[in-house]
Amino acid sequence: MIDQPRSKEPSDFYIGLDIGGTKCAVVLGDRNFKIYEKVFFETKVSRGPALIIDEFKGHVHKLVDKYGREKLVKIGISCGGPLDSKKGLIKSPPNLPGWDAIPIVDILEKEFRVDVAIQNDANACALAEWMMGAGVGTENMVFLTFGTGMGAGLILNGKIYSGTNDLGGEVGHLRLADDGPVGFGKAGSFEGFCSGGGIAKLAKTTVEHKLKNEIAVGFCPTVEGIDALTAKSVFTAAHKGDATALEIVRISAYYLGRALAILIDTLNPECIVIGSIYARNEALLRPLVYEVLEKEAIPEALGVCRILPAKLGDKIGDYAALGVAMQ
């Protein structure tokens, strides 16, 4: 448990639960996103959902007893999909085997006698960036994860939009080319070109082709190094001016620009906030992306849309589930 300074206890508070495949977190904060306490624990998925939920319950009970049970307003949950936010069900996420139609919202509402809401992690991060990050003050915002995978959280007309059955924002599945790195189970997809795993695959095929044709690759001079290539190693080399790394980055940026143009023309947002890889490498990616956007997007729609790096950085996980509680 990490205790925050308690110079003044909240008059009321919210609790956010982050359910991950490796670790879980419980966060207690107020309406202004001031965090008073955080608790982390290992998920240990093999023990099954019942024991993991019991551990969540135990931590929440300790916190509400400490801060005043009557002050708890609402609980929010951030969890990887698929899920049903309307029925409050977790529906077998890949990182949570055995979580088959778990009625997590109903379980926690009965336990704590307050309203409970759940959103997938991309939507939860979108809410956090919209409420206190790069998207503050907008009515229409798109949040893109651009991390291990590629997903979107959509804020439309001042509300989270999850779609008819919580598949709104699954932009990683968009096919942008007939062929290319596989992401979201589809070759040439948005996730294939614009995710950590996809960029690593693109790097491996690009470097392998060059080395087979006896073309020197500065940041990976031998075939023995191919398996160790990652998005991070590509961007590190690109920042140093490596020609092959820059070629890989340009390909990813091109398809990022293509996808952003689709989102801009379809949704007409005020801003698109992009996390993780883009946020860390904006200086490289932004000019390349705008070259594409200026050719592909409707000028009037592009003119009112800002492309911004996510503002909350590594802290976004602290605020995401709280944002769900406050929606």
Automatic annotation (TrEMBL):
Listed name of the protein: Glucokinase
A molecular function (GO) term: kinase activity
SUPFAM superfamilies (UniProt xref): Actin-like ATPase domain
Keywords assigned: Kinase, Transferase
UniProt family annotation: Belongs to the ROK (NagC/XylR) family.
Keyword NADP: no
Domain of life: Bacteria
